[in-house]
Design goal:
Strand order of the largest sheet: 2-3-1-4-5
Number of strands: 5
Structural class: alpha/beta
Number of helices: 9
CATH topology of the largest domain: Rossmann fold
CATH class of the largest domain: Alpha Beta
Length: 161
């Protein structure tokens, strides 16, 4: 595992080996971690030593989360009531893990991050599903609001008309 390898060799070598093993580029790692690509290039070339916060982000990106989960991509306020909910599918327990996103770009970035974190599948808005399916190699399902949610939203708009 990457977090062990960084103690057995220098960070630069461990990072290079892990990127090769996963078939990832520096740019992809940048998207996964939020660390600027230029910073990662400098670390990978040995021009710069990483800060502790940078090492933590990289280790977190390479360390799969414990247990099986299904990623739910939505605005933060929608995630609060669904975070940690568990379902059983084909005899295996999965928890719902939220990935907050507030723009189309955020949704695409967190979809890749969820896949890299080890998500068994992704739940997202219908408008995003076909695009995300092209980007990840896990099942993607749409989040379809029920009639109660649609009527609630319509009533909210009605009050403002």
């Amino acid at each position: 595992m990457f977090e062990q390898r960084i103690f057995e060799t220098d960070f630069r070598t461990a990072l290079s080996e892990e990127l090769d093993r996963r078939g990832l580029s520096i740019r992809q790692l940048s998207e996964m971690t939020g660390i600027p690509a230029v910073t990662l290039y400098k670390i990978a070339s040995g021009e710069r030593d990483p800060r502790l916060s940078t090492v933590k982000k990289i280790v977190a990106a390479f360390s799969p989360r414990h247990g099986k989960f299904i990623a739910l991509i939505a605005a933060k306020f929608l995630l609060d009531e669904n975070e940690g909910v568990k379902i059983i599918a084909n005899g295996t327990e999965y928890r719902i893990e939220g990935y907050a996103a507030n723009s189309l770009e955020d949704c695409l970035i967190v979809a890749v991050r969820a896949r890299n974190d080890g998500a068994a599948g992704i739940i997202c808005a219908p408008i995003l599903a076909s695009l995300i399916e092209k980007m990840v190699d896990v099942p993607v399902a749409i989040l379809k609001p029920d009639m109660h949610a649609v009527l609630g939203a319509a009533e909210s708009i009605g009050k403002r008309l």
